[in-house]
Design a protein that fits this description.
The protein is about 65% helix and about 0% strand. It is mostly helical and about 160 residues long.
């Protein structure tokens, strides 16, 4: 658990460093992208393969730690849909802050989509098993009662 917390802090520092510092590569972008798929198709069609892999793969890898660390640190966030929802919310917040406060950066919905896809991939590859190893499933009261053997012997009463 301590290792997961330390990993999350380290990941937060790396995330802030990668997303909240001005970027010379994106200085030419002047408009935010709110149409899903627009910048993904632009990278696939208009740039070299190395640049496309760097940009798209980097966004997938940036979301990967969320899928691994969220189920360990927040057991209620365990589950594919929950990990996806939490990651989408956090990455949308990062993109909004990045677009509003950082020179040379703009909001891009495709980054949110790719980060969320990376988190889902991380959850499926490792996060699910790691979350269950650290936080085993609880047995609810109704399943415990059904699993307990019933004593069918009659107990004599004191009269």
């Amino acid at each position: 658990m301590v290792t997961a917390f330390a990993g999350t802090v380290l990941f937060g520092v790396v995330l802030a460093r990668l997303t909240l510092e001005p970027s010379a590569a994106s200085a030419a972008l002047v408009h935010a992208n709110v149409r899903p798929g627009r910048s993904i198709s632009a990278y696939l069609e208009g740039t070299s393969t190395i640049a496309a892999v760097h940009q798209l793969g980097g966004n997938l890898l940036l979301g990967l730690p969320f899928g691994v660390l969220l189920p360990v640190l927040l057991p209620p966030a365990r589950g594919l849909l929950r990990v996806g929802a939490v990651t989408a919310c956090l990455m949308t917040l990062v993109e909004l802050v990045q677009g509003a406060l950082v020179t040379g950066r703009v909001f891009d919905v495709d980054d949110v989509i790719l980060n969320t896809a990376g988190a889902l991939l991380g959850y499926l590859l490792l996060g699910r098993r790691l979350g269950r190893a650290v936080h085993p499933r609880r047995r609810h009261w109704w399943t415990r009662r059904a699993a307990e053997p019933r004593d069918t012997r009659s107990v004599p009463r004191d009269s």
